[in-house]
Amino acid sequence: MENGPYGRLREFIAPGADRLGILISLLEEIRLPHRTADIAGNRHVFVFPQGYETAGPPKPVLVAHYDRAAGSPGANDNSAAVFMLAETLRKLREKENGNWLVIFTDKEELSPGEGIRQQGSYTLARSLRDAGLGKNRFYIFDACGAGDTLIISTTADHLMKDEDGMGIARTRQQVQWLRNHALETSRYLIMEKVLLAPTPFSDDVGFLRAGIAAQTLTVLPSPEAARLAALKHKNGFAEALVSREAAPPFRQFIPETWRTLNTPADSISRLTPENFIRVVRFACELCRE
User: Fold this and answer.
1) What is the pTM of this model?
2) Quick one: pLDDT at residue 54?
3) Chain segment 241-251, per-residue pLDDT in tens
4) How far apart are the first and last CA of the chain?
5) In the chain, which stretches have pLDDT less than 50?
6) HEC profile for 21-80?
7) Alpha-carbon gap, residue 141 to 138, rounded angstroms
8) 3-state secondary structure of 194
9) 182: which residues sit within 8 A by CB, 6+ positions away?
10) % of the chain at pLDDT higher than 90
11) Spatial CB neighbours of 154, under 8 Å, sequence gap ≥ 6
12) Which CATH superfamily is 4-286 part of?
């Protein structure tokens, strides 16, 4: 991991790192068009394929937040996924006719007392919707660096379960399409370790509150994924994951990998770089037309 596409990961997770500056430097090396947009005080980075000006509106949109919680190295949440999508961009660069978009988002992490409307993805999604991109296929990569089992999130179901209306019905349908497509993609790649389950708070919450369907993808070690599979239907479990304030009896059921997120324990030692290529292949396949 010291060399190659992940060679600057330690620099990225160092205390006081200029994470946006490092990210921009990585994108300069990849040599794809990119720009930084300031939306509601948050700085999001957009990366486009060559020739995007004539390619029409992008269809798949891959998303990963580059910010981290205060006091945490943020190795898994969400540095690993940022570098995975950077490697995905290297591979996508080799294809001439891309019709995708990659967004590195700011302020996924909220401070105490802040709500969803302060999340970067909420104001970003509103801007995307106003620009006519609300019906694109949004896939969010979060905490993908520790483990070998792809978790396709079902958190959206719990977020929308008590809501109704034509807009909600349409969003539910779009979320289901995204989920089915993610499953089909995993089958095409013959990924044997895949689980549908609720996952922690991520950028999908802000997207959904802004009226845009989004599908979160994450990763867990197999033993933790197996325990999650046995507990995912437990009453109140999904809500505890999303709230970020899980208390007994739920905290003991949350996978250890997720319990370390936003803490000093989210260090590089927890990452499993031998599995990164699986996520990169999956991300590349999502962009295949």
Assistant:
1) 0.94
2) 57
3) 776 555 556 66
4) 31
5) none
6) HHHHHHHHHHCCCEEEEEECCEEEEEECCCCHHHCCCCCEEEEEECCCCCCCCCHHHHHH
7) 10
8) strand
9) 139, 152, 215, 217, 286
10) 70
11) 179, 196, 197, 198, 199, 232, 238
12) Zn peptidases (3.40.630.10)
